[in-house]
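Hello forum,

I keep getting stuck at the same step: I have a sequence, I want structure tokens, and every attempt I make locally crashes halfway through. Rather than fight my setup again tonight, could one of you with a working pipeline run this one for me? It's a single chain of 206 residues.
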Amino acid sequence: MWFTLFERLWMLRGFDHMLMDPYLEGASFGRLRDRVVEYNLAIIDQWTARGVDAVHFSDDWGSQRTTLMNPDDWRRFYRPAYEAMFGGVRSGGAHVWMHLCGNITAILGDLIDAGLNVLNPVQPQAMDVRVLAREYGGKVCFNDGVDVQGTLIHGSPQDVRGEVDNLVDLFGRYDGGYIGGTSHSIMPETPLDNVIALYQAFLQYQ
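Reply #2:
Ran it on my machine without issues. Output:
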């Protein structure tokens, strides 16, 4: 379910408007948000009725440094919506996966409490992977994490292998706690030797 809620709303209203709507147009914002959630819940029912293993959501709530909204305001305006949608998936017997770019550390605990099973991606230049492992290891499965902004472009194959080993050591110690991969799409300027090293490094953990 790409562009699940926040992204769907700003596609409809425009990004600047959607950031201001909860404060300036509270009633209208609430009605539009709830209509989108209502639609999503109907889609979730269709998926779970067909016996899917998981439903994948996406909303990019993070910038490179922090969340796009004050976390307390996010909890007020958006958390109940995710609780409803995640609850629909979990009650239907499926797992909840979600793509959230950027630094979403401030709301990750809320998302886990709401029912998140798998977080995609882990961006090491936006979030501290050691903090994530310490605070949330064993509570959520981390998906991806090898740095496409730095290591894969500028590092050596040895650097890539070392980063893979570090991520597996941090997250893989928890049962079901890590699914290997890159922090986002591999950039065109990435050396081919580094891509090969990436695959080889993960293959050794099969």
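The longest strand covers residues 54-58. If your local run keeps crashing, start a new thread with the error log.
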